[in-house]
Design brief:
Distance between the termini: 17 Å
Helix content: 40-55%
């Protein structure tokens, strides 16, 4: 087996382990939902609805999945309970595709301009700075030149944290004093990145939601100032969410979506929770693609999201199924 094959196997093992608690909970509930039944009937569908809702998929997304399963049952006339896992796997994968989720295999950066600018948002405590650090490290491993911008000047610790991650990843950090204007930091970061010929810029922002008007104005100002350096910036607005908070993560996502245009999602801390179903619901309700998932503490444990592998890890009956 070649190096790429070994890497893919390790990546899949990390995914299986990271989603282990979610899978164990989901499969246990599904087994109880179909106990004593040979075919998918109204009782099974009612039970399935409860399984998905209690697995943090969310009510609206759950109803959408149930409708799809009902249509399959009506079309095929007879669907055995043994087929239910496969049907759920297919329908959820299709749903994620419709929500613009792509099977990410590598760093798909545009070749027509650089640097590619990613503005990173999210409340404090979700793993935002950690995600930035891991992204920087992975991009550098992929041969990309990366610059970080410490535009969360609201907390003294935030600037120090991103500097530590920059040092670990071996990438430069543009920073100012605590209390500095975040837009000024973003401006300096882009100018520095252009001068260095960087491929990617990752800019941290303050994680405050208690004052939505203030947050909206701050993000708008950062964007306006960046456009003076690079008219297309930012190329991406990445929202980081803590998957272990379940439906609270969805509420945060809705609040951020109300104040800025979110283009991609990173959902962290999935390895320590049984609430991994929230990935499906958030992607479906926001119509924003999940781009990264966090499955552990290691630098490589932030993975590019692959919808088919994600769904397979949840529903396959053993780790050797395709």
């Amino acid at each position: 087996m070649g190096l790429f094959g070994l890497f893919n196997r390790k990546k899949k093992e990390t995914l299986d382990q990271g989603l282990g608690k979610t899978k164990q909970s989901l499969m246990g509930k599904l087994a109880r939902a179909v106990a004593g039944k040979s075919k998918v009937d109204d009782d099974v569908l009612d039970n399935l609805e409860e399984v998905l809702i209690t697995s943090d998929v969310g009510v609206e997304t759950t109803l959408k999945i149930i409708r799809r399963v009902e249509e399959r049952v009506a079309r095929d006339k007879y669907v055995s309970t043994a087929e239910l896992n496969g049907i759920l796997r297919d329908e959820i994968a299709s749903l994620l595709t419709e929500n613009n989720a792509r099977d990410m295999e590598g760093w798909d950066l545009p070749s027509d301009h650089k640097p590619y600018v990613i503005l990173v948002v999210g409340v404090n405590g979700v793993g935002k700075t950690t995600t930035i650090g891991k992204l920087a490290w992975q991009l550098r491993q992929a041969g990309k030149k990366v610059v970080l911008g410490a535009a969360d000047t609201f907390r003294a610790a935030a600037v120090e944290q991103i500097q530590i991650w920059g040092d670990r990843a071996g990438v430069p950090v543009v920073r100012q004093q605590m209390g500095s204007d975040p837009a000024s930091v973003a401006f300096d970061t882009l100018q520095s990145a252009k001068a260095q010929g960087a491929d990617v810029v990752l800019i941290d922002t303050a994680g405050r939601l208690h004052n939505k008007v203030g947050l909206m104005n701050e993000l708008r100002k950062i964007k306006d100032v960046m456009k003076k350096v690079m008219p297309q910036a930012p190329d991406e607005v990445l929202l980081v969410l803590d998957g272990s908070t379940g439906q609270n993560a969805f509420e945060q996502a809705k609040q951020f979506a109300a104040v800025t245009n979110i283009t991609s999602l990173a959902i962290t801390k999935l390895d320590g929770t049984a609430k991994g179903g929230v990935v499906i619901g958030i992607s479906d309700q926001l119509k924003v693609p999940v781009k990264y998932i966090g499955l552990g503490e290691g630098m490589e444990d932030l993975q590019l999201f692959n919808r088919r592998e994600f769904v397979d890890s949840l529903f396959e009956t053993n780790n050797h199924d395709s």
